[in-house]
């Protein structure tokens, strides 16, 4: 099992055991993490799985992912990622995922 920590904008955090092969988005949904909606189910067509990850282990976002991030409703930062595009592996143990500030 791989431990992933989700951090809310107010600093509240939750560390969960993620299943390898699932995406970060699927992990967030499995644990009802606030801030990840995943309206398209992981098809890279909604950007409602937007999060911030500042960790080289997740690699670079693809061009398609970057294009979709332009559609994100929340602030896009250099660390912005679509959580549906990152697969959980053992190598990501201890990963920290920050959630965007919810729209008002
Ligand atoms: S779940 Fe829709 S883009 Fe990730």
Task: Give an overview in words.
The protein is an alpha+beta fold. It has a single domain, classed as Beta-grasp domain (Ubiquitin-like (UB roll), Roll), CATH 3.10.20. The protein is built from 2 helices and 5 strands, in the order ββαβαββ. The protein has helices spanning 24-30, 63-69, and strands at 2-7, 13-18, 50-52, 80-82, 95-98. The strands form 2 sheets. It has a 3-stranded mixed sheet with strand order 2-1-5, with helices on one face. A two-stranded antiparallel sheet has the order 3-4. The termini are far apart. The model has no long low-confidence stretch (mean pLDDT 96). The site of FE2/S2 (inorganic) cluster (FES) has 14 residues, from loops.
**Overall pLDDT score:** 96
| H/I helix tally | 2
Q: Strands of the largest sheet, in order across it?
A: 2-1-5
What count of structural domains? 1
How is the secondary structure organized here?
Layout: E1 2-7, E2 13-18, H1 24-30, E3 50-52, H2 63-69, E4 80-82, E5 95-98
Bound molecules: FE2/S2 (inorganic) cluster.
FE2/S2 (inorganic) cluster binds next to loops.
Provide a concise account of the structure shown.
Strands 2-1-5 form a three-stranded mixed β-sheet, with helices on one face. Strands 3-4 form a two-stranded antiparallel sheet. It is built from two helices and five strands.
Features of this protein?
binds FE2/S2 (inorganic) cluster, three-stranded mixed beta sheet, two-stranded antiparallel ribbon, alpha+beta, 2 helices, Ubiquitin-like (UB roll), globular, 104 residues, single chain
